Amino acid sequence: MTDAQTKPYRGPLPRPTPETKPFWDGAKQHKLMLPWCKACGRAHFFPRNCCPHCFAFDLEWRQASGRGKLHTYVINHKPARGFEDKVPYVIAVVELEEGPRMMSNLVMDETPTPDKLPIDMDLEVCFDDVTAEITLPKFRIAGARS
Amino acid sequence: MSSLSRKVAIVGAAETNQLGKLPHLSRMGLHAEAIRNALDDAGLTLKDVDGVFSTVAGPNEISEYLNITPRYVDGTGVGGCSYMVFVRHAVAAIAAGYCDVALIVHGESGRSWIDMEAAGTPASPQGQFEAPYGAAGAPTVFSIPVLRHFHQFGTTKRQMSHVPAATREWALLNPKAIMHDAGSITPEDVEASPVVCHPFNRLDCCLVADGGGALVLTSAERARDMRRKPVYVLGSGEGTAHRQVAMMRDFTVSDSSVLSGRQAFAEAKITPADVDHLMFYDAFSFTPMMFLEDLGFVKRGESGPFVAQTTKDASGKTIYHTGPGGSLPMNTNGGGLSYCHTGRYGMFALLEAVYQLRGECGARQVKDIELSLVHGPGRHFAAAGTVVLTNV
């Protein structure tokens, strides 16, 4: 999806911690993984070593459906470092089918404009292998080709 | 415990000599200049100070730089509202006898960026789950809740564009405001300025400047003999709910602001209807709209129609609801949008409330003012601090 081999990626990269490593390992395999609490049965995001709903520490990882809705977003015209060739780009908060919300980018072939992006529209996950080590889960309009 | 309302007063208040582009002063230098000016204003010296409240420079850095040994320190860093939170903490510390003279200080080389550090690491939650998506800088995070509010309540960009226009009118009356000579702007001008991060255009965004300010607080009893008219802390509140903007529980409510405001109103024993003057931290046009709702000045979802109300004066000039001549004077220094914004603006909102309550504001002076409410967010809508001040 990106030409990581020919052009070094300059954007900010996450540095996984022990608590988040399964999430990033999953992303590398193009799976969106979420921590679920065995005590209260709810998923959460961002990944922690304890459940933010009930403070239990007994968690398990499950693959999410990858479906979600565009909860809110912005169209950024002043790029962050490494995003110079991507402006304008969409920073979105996606509400996952499983409940939690996460920040991501909305990937589009066309230039993003507000009229193309109604709030609550259906999205699906896609994966951007930005480096050999890191894959970022991103989203596209459901049914759209990447 | 008995109430701490009106037990502590602000007796000194000042900015740095200048605000704007100050390449001759570092982060530490800005702090020192603000402290000197506020102590001069109070008629006190460094020797009198035994409590230091500071975050852009930590209390240990302040003590070293000024060669002082305060017996009470507070380095709470929850973003731009840290200074409102410091007022609350200083009230408690003075009432407890842990310090007698509290110095709250802000300095930030927000524009020249001399001895400033970027926040966070790539391993922090924000570094892992927001920064990789190009969310960098205030315009990309303060903007995130806005379209959700538009969607849920029918709020419009045109309504929001009234906030910078109204605030500019105040700046034209404040000689210290960076945009003092920049002329009026209309909501249409706001929308015609370049897009920064939709739904924000350039004129929706605060200024980026260097500067500082400081406050000196002591007991109401001791304040009676000081050179300045005391400004009493009638009530205060604070709270924090999260750190990353995507973790807001509901993008149309700042939970920390609701909590903070509720505490301040209860302690001060007032309601929004009692407030003569509002300082609502305006990092962006939308920011004070959220607080009008969160603190109950308008009902949920009604901030858009509220800020967009205008009338005409006899000469045909537009009078904004929150602008000069309007019914609710808000951000009378010209705000973060048109006066000054260094990064953590809370100090400047507090200073303006003090100047107004001391009657020092010249052309922009709010008449018959007795009660001012200052409220701000920390790190977009994550944290909050509220202070209610009075001159009677």
General description of the model:
- The complex is a heterodimer of chains A (146) and B (392).
- Chain A has 146 residues and is mainly β.
- Chain A has one domain.
- Chain A has one helix at 21-28, and strands spanning 33-37, 59-63, 67-76, 89-96, 101-106, 122-129, 135-141.
- Chain A has a five-stranded antiparallel beta sheet. Chain A has a two-stranded antiparallel ribbon with strand order 1-2.
- By secondary structure, chain B is α+β, with helices and mostly antiparallel strands.
- Chain B has a single domain, classed as Peroxisomal Thiolase, Chain A, domain 1 (3-Layer(aba) Sandwich), CATH 3.40.47.10.
- Chain B is 32% helix and 19% strand.
- Chain B has 15 helices and 13 strands.
- Chain B has helices spanning 27-42, 59-66, 82-96, 125-129, 138-141, 146-153, 157-160, 162-171, 187-192, 220-223, 255-268, 286-294, 303-307, 335-338, 346-357, and strands spanning 8-15, 51-54, 72-74, 102-109, 195-198, 200-201, 210-219, 231-240, 277-280, 310-312, 318-320, 371-378, 383-390.
- Chain B has a nine-stranded mixed beta sheet, with helices on both faces. In chain B, strands 5-6 form a two-stranded antiparallel sheet.
- The longest helix of chain B is centred in the N-terminal third of the chain and has 16 residues, at 27-42.
- The radius of gyration of chain B is 20 Å and the shape is globular.
- The interface between A and B is large, with 41 and 36 residues.
